[in-house]
Amino acid sequence: MDPAPDSLVILADRQAAPANHREPPRHPKWSDTLTYIAKPEKFCRDNLAEYGPIFKTSVFGGTTIFVGSAPANKMAFNGDNSYTQIGLPATTMEMFGEHSLFQRPDLHRDRKSALRPGFTGRMLADYMPHMHQVLTEHLQTWPTDQPVSLMTMIEEVTFDILAPLLLGIRLDQGDSILAGLPITTKAELKQQYKTFFDGFYGLVKWNNPLTTFGRGKRARAKLMDFMKAVIAQQRQSDFAATPDFLSMMLMAQQDAPSGVFNDELIANQCLLQLWASYYEVSGLLASWTYQLGEHPEVIARLQAEQGAILGRNLPATLPTLDQLKQLTFLDATIKETLRILPPSSTATRTLIKSVMLDGMLFKQGWNIIAEPRIAHAMTEHFTNPDTYNPERFLPEQGEGRAYEFIPFGGGVHACLGAQMAMVSNKLFAIHLLQSFDWTLLGKAEFVQFPLRKIKDNYQVQLHKKK
Fold this sequence. Notes:
Mean pLDDT: 90
CATH architecture: Orthogonal Bundle
Number of helices: 16
Structural class: alpha+beta
Order of helices and strands: EHHEEHEHHHEHHHHHHHHEEEEHHEEEE
Radius of gyration: 22 Å
Helix content: 40-55%
Largest sheet: 5 strands, mixed
């Protein structure tokens, strides 16, 4: 567990702040929530320019402090059970469910430690043959020399990669594999996920089918029934022989029946892991592809790196996890995409105690949001932050230090699936770069909230490599 910043002082209850303290600048406005949701990037950049990397808002109600400096990010990420608690909107917390990692900070470390093996080390290496196979099959069917929806293509391949790895269900036999389950087609499963996702930030917590939140709650119930049926199906199979996330949890439960993994937690984690991975990974792959299309000189360098490290027999040959780690420039391009186009904010906390950080008072009851859109735009963190420059992440330049580069959060709340997202992107890149050239058809528009992703109507044109 990372410690809080050295300059952090936690005030005792009813302890007065020092006489010379200051508060974050800016007066909250009644319109802040709507302005932020409509254009998060502009909201963060405009206020960063005027007030600096720490400022007051009224986003999501009450006083909410946006932070982007490294010490403030560190404070936001590492205060659980000491001076912060989860501070997400009530609608979001209900969508996460009572068995999510967020609901019990006292159990967070044990639960996260138990889940981590599903996304690192040997299991991550075991996932790679499946990723490779799905990419090979999908990219062979992608149409060339005609306009195609970038997001639609990538969402299709991402779902077919992730659903089997997380739930153990095979999708290469069409919808017949879902027969007998509460949701019987892949299209319906994806639609229920979309409705569920939309409910996370419903502005009114009214459980009625006329509201976004109410529709999301109904989708959540259907998805939980589906997850429980999948779990029951898996228990009837030889799940110990299957390298997937659900099987890992079932084996852990079998080994320690009174341990971390009860049935409700397993079902809820399946629900949330597929939701988070699907949207985060597909958004990252599309944004990376789009950025590379704007920089053909970077594509040439990536192809040279792949040839030097992986040889020319690509994408037929599956790289090893160690070889992927050697693709340092590819790694840098993915990080630069995450820096310029971070998918979302990464931490929302409520202060349960007042704290002082570098002479600034953060009051008990205020919310704190750690925003990559602020941290990644700061000249204190990145040289010429408005310039696309993957080389900044190479070892010799050394940018992207902890708490300055925060696309996956940080500290105790760093994203569980970060390594899986990076490996997925690298394997996708290898296949795409060896199979196609591509032309961007205009400037892409992005859905901005709650996760940033390229709009479905944006098109590219693929050209088959000879």
